Amino acid sequence: MSTFRALVIDKRDNEIVAETKQLEIDDLPEGELLIRVAYSSVNYKDALACSANGGVVKSYPIVPGIDLAGTVIASENERFQAGDQIVVTGYGLGVSHYGGFSEYARVPAAWALKLPSGLSMKEAMIIGTAGFTAALSVYELQQNGVRPEDGPILVTGATGGVGSVAAAIAAKLGYEVAASTGKADKHEYLRGLGVKRILAREELAVDSQRALDKQLWAGAIDCVGGKTLSSLLPQIQYGGVVAASGLTGGSELSMTVFPFIIRGIRLIGIDSVMAGMEKRSKAWELLAGDYKPPMLDELCEEIGLEQVIGQAGILLKGQSKGRTIVRL
Q1: What DSSP state is assigned to residue 38?
Q2: Domains contained in the chain, CATH given
Q3: What is the H or E stretch that residue 178 is in?
Q4: Cα gap 71→79, rounded to integer Å
């Protein structure tokens, strides 16, 4: 353990330099837990961290990787002992604090959660931040009264990490899931997740012309934002709920108040970065149990540390499918 491998991102003359380097334990930032990382995963935020204009990293160098699952090697916190398997997602991991694209990591104990029974470390990273976000989204629909018998729900950006897991969870729970995607070659993949109906991205990614439209969806999980979310809101049926977590389609939202004051719909924002530990624990318990997507291995591709930058480029181009985990 005198040295170990990590993907280090640095910025020189406004150019991003990515190198797999040998680091020492003393190179790691402060934290109560020293972890031997087993798996990480590649998320859209990781791709931004590896990009010169990503805007998520404030100081360099940085080891990206906003997710990790591993084994505690040493602990200065009484909640954890050497040998505990843990999962860490969000907070400053991988953007302001060295993250999961490293064979070892050191993190604050307040960021860590013991791996729940029913999940392996590999499965936890197939789920990762994307699956955690998906679980929070499905949970909000359930908690706000959207039931399978109320009608179909729509998942936008459904071939991405959040959308894929959300569709799989919702289908497992008995919802009739419709999916929106711009990838015509991924329809069979979506049907394998349990999706019953597929919409072309162009059907939603338009300037909405109506304050209220035909009531099509009992609820929705939006991973896209922008025009897609603007077009979706007038289509939600009375009392319906939209859980919004994404902005790959844009951060602006053009809308009227009519869906809210005439149909009583609710738009709920989903934040997976700073979510409290009580909410995290509940979501991960569900992901290890009732929410655990079937056929998890079919949701993911496994790569090594040297392939991360290439996968980040694929993500930024919108060409990814499902989840990509990194074996450390």
Answers
A1: E
A2: 4-115+295-327 (3.90.180.10), 129-269 (3.40.50.720)
A3: strand 177-181
A4: 14
How many CA atoms does the CB half-sphere of 274 hold within 13 Å? 1
Name the amino acid, one letter, at 284: W
Give the position of tokens 């392939």: 307
pTM: 0.92
Distance of alpha carbon 293 from alpha carbon 226, whole angstroms: 28
- Give me the pLDDT at residue 1, please: 62
Positive or negative CA dihedral for 319, 323, 327, 328?
positive
Centroid of chain to Cα 7: 21
3-state secondary structure labels for all residues of 100-133: CCECEEEECHHHEEECCCCCCHHHHHHHHHHHHH
Beta pairing class for 104-107 and 112-114:
unpaired
Per-block mean pLDDT, blocks of 10 residues, the chain (328 long): 91 87 96 98 93 87 97 97 97 96 98 96 96 97 98 95 94 97 89 94 77 95 94 96 92 93 98 94 97 86 95 88 92
Q: Looking at residue 208, what is its pLDDT?
A: 63
What distance in Å separates the CA atoms of residue 79 and residue 59, rounded to the nearest whole number?
A: 31
Which residue has 């993907």 as its token pair?
7
The count of other CB atoms within 10 Å of the CB of residue 5 is: 17
Could you tell me if 291 and 297 are in contact, meaning their C-beta atoms sit under 8 angstroms apart?
no
Structure tokens at 149: 């018998």
Output DSSP code: residue 61: S
